[in-house]
């Protein structure tokens, strides 16, 4: 199995990067949709329904598959011999950050359900601040992987 992973390493890495880019696009965009949803739509109105469709499609059709692919191909990279030296700090920092990114994804999914039930109590300002979470985690992840401290 490890030889197969080594043979397909460039392909696995390419698919992993593509999945990460798609996932990050959604993680940047969904909180921004929530800001506009809170600030521009009345619960139960036509604009509220439009935002809910956009948010659901983004989460279900793009973000969820991209997150799953990121995890699957990322774990395949981790299992490829000679790729990760677990005695260094960087893989642990990256792993913790990826778990943080996953938590943020789940949090966004829970917030979507709040909009669906008409129970959102989070302000546009809070969503704007939360929109910075994936940026900070992305900086940590990319720096740890490239610099390998």
List keywords for this structure.
mainly alpha
Computed CA radius of gyration, to the nearest angstrom? 18 Å
Tally of helical segments: 6
Cα-to-Cα separation, first versus last residue: 29 Å
> Based on DSSP secondary structure assignment, what is the total number of beta strands?
0
Portion in beta strands: under 5%
**Class from helix and strand fractions:** mainly alpha
Uncertain runs: none
Q: Can you tell me the overall shape?
A: elongated
Sheet with most strands:
none
**Fraction of residues in H or I helices:** over 70%
Run of helices and strands = HHHHHH
Number of domains: 1
Average per-residue pLDDT, rounded, comes to 96
Describe, in plain words, how this protein is organized in 3D.
The protein has one domain (2-147). It has six helices and no strands. The model has no long low-confidence stretch (mean pLDDT 96). It has 149 residues and is mainly alpha-helical. The protein has helices spanning 2-7, 9-40, 46-79, 90-116, 124-130, 133-147. Helix content is 81%, strand content 0%. It is elongated, with a radius of gyration of 18 Å. The longest helix is centred in the middle third of the chain and has 34 residues, at 46-79.
Give a quick rundown of the structure.
The protein has 149 residues and is mostly helical. The protein has one domain.
């Amino acid at each position: 199995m490890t030889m197969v992973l080594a043979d397909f390493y460039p392909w696995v890495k390419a698919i992993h990067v593509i999945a990460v880019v798609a996932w990050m696009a959604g993680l940047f965009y969904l909180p921004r949709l929530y800001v506009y949803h809170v600030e521009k739509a009345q619960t139960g109105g036509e604009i509220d329904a439009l935002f809910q469709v956009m948010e659901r499609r983004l989460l279900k059709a793009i973000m969820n598959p991209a997150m799953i692919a990121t995890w699957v191909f990322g774990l395949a990279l981790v299992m490829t011999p000679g790729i990760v030296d677990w005695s260094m700090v960087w893989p642990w920092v990256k792993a913790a950050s990826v778990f943080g990114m996953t938590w943020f994804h789940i949090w966004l999914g829970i917030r979507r359900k709040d909009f669906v039930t008409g129970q959102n109590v989070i302000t546009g300002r809070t969503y704007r601040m939360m929109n910075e979470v994936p940026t900070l985690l992305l900086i940590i992840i990319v720096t740890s992987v490239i610099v390998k401290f």
